[in-house]
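Before a colleague's protein record goes any further, I have to sign it off. Thanks in advance; the entry in question is below:
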Amino acid sequence: MNRTVSFTTLDRATQEDLEIIDDCFKDQVKSLKKRIIEALLGLRGNPMGYQIDRFEHSLQTATRALRDGCDDEMIVCALLHDLGDDLAPLNHGELAAAILRPYVSPENAWTVKHHGILQSKEYLHEMKVDKNELEKKLRNHPAFERTIIFCRRWDRVSFDPNYDSLPLSTFEPMLERIFSHKVNCLS
């Protein structure tokens, strides 16, 4: 049975109301992996002009990171790096990084956040963006080189309809490990 709070404005919440909210919040956190998988599966079907859809691209990127010997955290970042494509096409990396940030290192969150910008520098001239100025701003960050590797070795090469990507089930234990450990909510 779902319990419901008694207040209509938060400043009138009782201790019991706050306990209800806390219990619901804990349930949300516990079910995060399931909702992440549902969102990932939601990337199926729309190739957005590519030969494969975003779900397959995500699997390919994560498979390449796994085969390169990356740790669980980077593999999960590779799997989820484009999770924001549908809802935030102009800043999808920021959305994916916001989801991952409490669970991964600051460097990996930065990589996910900036992968689209650094990847797109190849064609930014068409968007009237000075790619040299952009790179200069980002180059001094400790995760810059890691992000370049992410883009070159795993992301930009993962649009191949003939690539033998691993199934989602391969990555589910990694998702469980990453999304079930204690986090710093203020990170």
